[in-house]
Amino acid sequence: MYLNNKSIFDLLSFHIVDENIVDETILERWVEQAMVNDDYSFETGLLGIAWYISFLIENNYLVGDPDEILADLDDLIYKLTLKEVLQESIHVEKHLNLITYYQQRIGNDSKDHIYNRFTHFECLKLLIARLNEVLLDPKSFDQKELPLIIDILLKYSYLAIYVTDESLLEKPFYSSIENILDHFILEHVFIENVFIAKLFLCVKQYDNRYWWGKFQKILQSNGSNETSLWSELYLHIGETDLKDVNLKHFMKYDMDSKTLFDFVTNTNVYGD
Q: Are 211 and 220 in contact (CB under 8 A)?
């Protein structure tokens, strides 16, 4: 998909549409092809397929011990993580993908493999520390970097609530979201609807009423579009809990498979 040029994001979309679609033969072929191609990426490679297998096991679509099934891939991804965090430059998307993998693996709670869980947490902490550097760098808030900053903030809003100790990211998270909200309001910055939607989910998930008031001003300055993704989220969610949102409802709107993946892996939303 390699198999017809599909990605992990596409696989997840297919699964949300039809939760019966879990073909273990495809998963095996994907791993084999990724190894042949030396593809360690998330979109089409070993990192992504390892995440997907872990996701399927956690949600009872595959049966097995993820620590045993993913033992070799865990070791490989651990080495990739160390290599990535030691790079002088910070590749935000790669860091976010690795964090997504570790948050998923931490979700595979296994009392029989405590060492693995410790390793996953330590790798997660290293990756967060590097992304904190990005958030604390004033140059990161240039217009062209805002989408990446919003991606980090959405991820942090999830990690702080569901995965790790908030103290690991609290200072850069708070200061950055304050800066970005003020930046939007004061300079009337316009960005694509998908990033307004992500900022909406970040503020909604973290449930800070002061930020929510600021975000509403951003909605007003960006205009109203009843068919836009953020307006659909805004109208559909309202004051409800995110876990009550059915992602299938939004697949008919302007949401590609990567955006759907971002929503699934950065909130507690999951399709019915």
A: no
Helix axis angle for 8-17 and 46-58, nearest 10°, is 20
> Residue 185 and residue 266: Cα distance in Å, rounded?
25
How far is it, in rounded angstroms, from Cα 19 to Cα 25? 16
**What is the DSSP code (8-state) at residue 88?**
S
pLDDT tens figures, 170-203: 999 999 999 888 877 667 666 777 888 888 889 8
Sign of the torsion formed by the C-alpha atoms of 155, 161, 166 and 168: negative
End-to-end alpha-carbon separation of the chain, Å? Answer: 26
Q: How confident is the model at residue 215 (pLDDT cuts 50, 70, 90)?
A: confident
Tokens of 106: 């931490």
Please say whether the beta carbons of 75 and 125 come within 8 A. no
Q: How far apart are the C-alpha atoms of 8 and 27, rounded to whole Å?
A: 10
Distances (CA, A) of 141 to 28, 123, 182, 187, 266: 42, 26, 11, 12, 21
Amino acid occupying residue 137: D
The residues near 69 (Cβ < 8 Å, ≥ 6 apart) are 53, 57
- Taking the C-alpha atoms of residue 117 and residue 110, their distance in angstroms, rounded to an integer, is 8
CA distance 84 to 269: 29
For the record, the structure tokens of 178 come out as 């304050």
If you average pLDDT over every residue of the chain, what do you get? Answer: 84
What is d(CA 101, CA 33) in angstroms, rounded to the nearest whole number? 20
Q: What is the CA radius of gyration of the chain?
A: 19
Six-digit token pair at 224?
Answer: 């109203």
CB 66 within 8 A of CB 55: no
